[in-house]
Structures are given as structure tokens and as C-alpha cells.
């Protein structure tokens, strides 16, 4: 090397660390961690499904929960769908979820749109009122007194109205509505469009992703809710599926059905094991979310990021 040669220090990459190409050890670590996370999610679901479809002999040999399927026995599902408390509970949860999600979306969209428009009468005070619920919650006893005072005891509206609007979802939608360029509103008003027409023809079509995510939040919340049923619902025919499942797990016995023994060719007519029925009810409660989520998944990340960051 000549004396005139200048040794320059190696230039460091200007890219962030997380954008650098991972090392072989990093790739192996990522794969191991992701595999472990997937196993933690998949294995319990697999055990629940296999146990719900196992015979009493298989469950007894396994000492409870079954991991390796042996004898196929669908009697547990035939029992819970043969009529009775579980069937009524599924119908109640479906009605509450559909009606509650529709009502919550309508109220949240209207409120978020109104609070996102500058100059709306009293919008700062109303927004402060909604944000205050993040810090101050009225409590269980005042909520119970209000609901019962309105005559909603043993009424499906008691499962919908107390949670009809979420301040978090309202803030997310409002942030997205505020991120829409004001020129779109101005051009629509110049064409003679009113606020309702602007909302339905311009704002909502641009908000499909975030609206779908908020709707999923509401739907999952209504489907999984059981505490309001504990407070406000005493009639067995109005209990949602999550409340029935909770009663079943705590009591340790099968939910009431119109026919306990179900005859299946080749399987006999004995009552299926209690654990199989319990796992079948668990499967029934999680299947709707598993069915709906793939249709919403493409909007999920985009909707959460856009609604929470923009604005």
C-alpha cells in the first residue's frame, strides 16, 4: 500500500436497524418465536375441537382433554342443536350482535362526523363529555339503577343500549374523518350537497376500512358480552350464548336441552360426555368470529393505522 493511499473508515448504513437484512441467527430466532406463538394459539383450539368430537371412551382414556383424535362422536353437537337453552342462546346472541352492531355503527358514525366538522355547535363540549368517559366511569350500581329504571330489565335492549357507543371507536372514526381533505367537502357543498349526502356519498365510501374495523370491534364485543346479561337478564330464554357457557363451566353440568339422548346409527343413543358438550359450546361461541374475521382482515391493519394515526 502506497503512502498516498488514504484509508477511509467504513461507512455505516443510514437505514434503521429494523430495516437491515437479518442475520442467520435473527432469521432462526424469528422463525422459532413465530412457530411458538402459532402453536400457543393453534394447540388449544385443536384440543377443544378434538375433545368436542371425541367419545366418552376416548376422553376417559386421555384423562380429560384429548389431543390425538381416535373415536369420532358428533353427539355433543347434535345435543346442543336439538333445541333447548343453547339453541335459544345462539339465536339471542345473533339478534343482539346484528342489531347492536348496526345501531352502534350508525350512532358512532353520525357522532364522529358531527364532531369532526369545525364550527359544529357545541362540538368541543360534547367531545369533552365523550373523552371524560375514558377517565370517569359511573360504576355498576348507577348503571344498574338507570337500566332498571328505564324498564329494560329482562329486555334484549339492556344488552345493546348500555354499550351502544364506544368513546374509543368514536375517537378513531373522528380522527379519520378529520383527515379527509376539506376541498372534498367544499366542492360537494358547491354542488348543492347537504351534510347527510356528503356523509353517505363521500365520507363513508372513503372510510370503508376504518368503518369495517370499528364494526368488527362492536360485533365481537356484543357476541362475547356476558356481564350485562348477569346484571339485567334473569329469564333463561333471553340468556346469550356466552352467559350459558359461563353457567355451564361454573356449574360443571350440561346445559338444558329438549332431548338429552340422541340416537345416531352406529353410535347408539347414550348421552354424550359432559366435557364433550362443554367443548362443543366453546366451539360454537368462537366459530362466528373465525368466519367473519377473514373477510375483515384485509381492512383491519389499514383501518386501525389510518384511523389512529392520521388527523
Automatic annotation (TrEMBL):
This is Carbohydrate ABC transporter membrane protein 2 (CUT1 family). PANTHER family: ABC TRANSPORTER PERMEASE PROTEIN MG189-RELATED-RELATED (PTHR43744), POLYGALACTURONAN_RHAMNOGALACTURONAN TRANSPORT SYSTEM PERMEASE PROTEIN YTCP (PTHR43744:SF9). It is found in: Cell membrane. It comes from Actinoplanes italicus. CDD domains: TM_PBP2. Residues 90-292 form the ABC transmembrane type-1 domain. The chain crosses the membrane at residues 31-49, 89-115, 127-150, 156-177, 198-220, 275-296. The keyword Glycoprotein does not apply. It is a multi-pass membrane protein. GO terms for cellular component: plasma membrane. Keywords: Cell membrane, Membrane, Transmembrane, Transmembrane helix, Transport. InterPro entries: MetI-like, MetI-like_sf. GO terms for biological process: transmembrane transport.
Amino acid at each position: 500500500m502506497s503512502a498516498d493511499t488514504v484509508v477511509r473508515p467504513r461507512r455505516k448504513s443510514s437505514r434503521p436497524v429494523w430495516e437491515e437484512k437479518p442475520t442467520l441467527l435473527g432469521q432462526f430466532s424469528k422463525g422459532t418465536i413465530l412457530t411458538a406463538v402459532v402453536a400457543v394459539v393453534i394447540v388449544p383450539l385443536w384440543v377443544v375441537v378434538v375433545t368436542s368430537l371425541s367419545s366418552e371412551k376416548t376422553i376417559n382414556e386421555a384423562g380429560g382433554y384429548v389431543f390425538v383424535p381416535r373415536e369420532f362422536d358428533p353427539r355433543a353437537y347434535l345435543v346442543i342443536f336439538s333445541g333447548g337453552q343453547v339453541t335459544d342462546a345462539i339465536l339471542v346472541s345473533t339478534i343482539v350482535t346484528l342489531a347492536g352492531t348496526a345501531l352502534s355503527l350508525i350512532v358512532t358514525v353520525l357522532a364522529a362526523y358531527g364532531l369532526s366538522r369545525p364550527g359544529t355547535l357545541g362540538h368541543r363540549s360534547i367531545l369533552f363529555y365523550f373523552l371524560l368517559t375514558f377517565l370517569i366511569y359511573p360504576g355498576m350500581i348507577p348503571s344498574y339503577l338507570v337500566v332498571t329504571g328505564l324498564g329494560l330489565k329482562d329486555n334484549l335492549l339492556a344488552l345493546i343500549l348500555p354499550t351502544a357507543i364506544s368513546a374509543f371507536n368514536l375517537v378513531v372514526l373522528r380522527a379519520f374523518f378529520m383527515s379527509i381533505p376539506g376541498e372534498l367537502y367544499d366542492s360537494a357543498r358547491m354542488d348543492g350537497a347537504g351534510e347527510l349526502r356528503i356523509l353517505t356519498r363521500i365520507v363513508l365510501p372513503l372510510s370503508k376500512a376504518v368503518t369495517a374495523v370499528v364494526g368488527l370491534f362492536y360485533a365481537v364485543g356484543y357476541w362475547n358480552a356476558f356481564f350485562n346479561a348477569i346484571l339485567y337478564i334473569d329469564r333463561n330464554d333471553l340468556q346469550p350464548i356466552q352467559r350459558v357457557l359461563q353457567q355451564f363451566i361454573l356449574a360443571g353440568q350440561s346445559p338444558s336441552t329438549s332431548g338429552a339422548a340422541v340416537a345416531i346409527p352406529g353410535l347408539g343413543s347414550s348421552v354424550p360426555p359432559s366435557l364433550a358438550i362443554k367443548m362443543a359450546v366453546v366451539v360454537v361461541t368462537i366459530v362466528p368470529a373465525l368466519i367473519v374475521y377473514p373477510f375483515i382482515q384485509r381492512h383491519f391493519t389499514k383501518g386501525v393505522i389510518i384511523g389512529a394515526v392520521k388527523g
